[in-house]
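pasting for the record
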Amino acid sequence: MRDASTLLDPADPDSVHPLPAPGETAPPLGLVIFDCDGVLVDSEPISLARLTAGLNRIGVPIDVETVRARFAGTSMASIMGHIAQDYGIAAPEGFVEAVKADTLRAFDTELRAVAGVAAAVSALGLPTCVASSSDPVRLRHSLGLTGLLPLFEGRIFSSTMVARGKPAPDLFLHAAATMGVAPEACLVIEDSVPGVTAARAAGMRVVGFSGGGHWSHDPAAADLTRAGAARIFRDYRDLAAVIAAV
């Protein structure tokens, strides 16, 4: 096994571990990596609504379902790049900060942990961490509000820590390297296509969670399966069985 420090350069093909070939046995799990928004906290309906409202205010003709389909699980930097390219509208100075502040205010009164997640994580018996496209301030705010912060304190990774956010593998590789676990021994829990894509690119096993409030439509499982999720689950009471199966 290579030293974890060699896993940090996703531009180096040898630094991205392939998934086991058919018939090969995957190594025992050494780390479960959770996305945050839509996986640990049911934040996506709130944040997608606030982002859509902000984009509408600056003249972007987009609805919340389009925002969900295109940008769920994506960093704000990437989102604004797509908005400028696709709609020809550059966000005014301070726009991103204003949307983030508006979202955090809404979290204060509306945000909840995903049902059953605290008990499921506590019962895992495996090392865990968080790897999210959200910035560190939002991550700590969300996890603190919902009482989940003590479960992950000191093991929280943001896309602001790496050169490229999801769907690139950088964030997951950084989290695994910092935790001292090889990518092939990691399992990622994700709710978005960019997140599943990033996990697969990192050579990690990945399962999809479709129990968040933003996944109220039937094609959710199909979206995540097409992206490469090995299994899909909607209820954290099933987490242990899902992990055992992969």
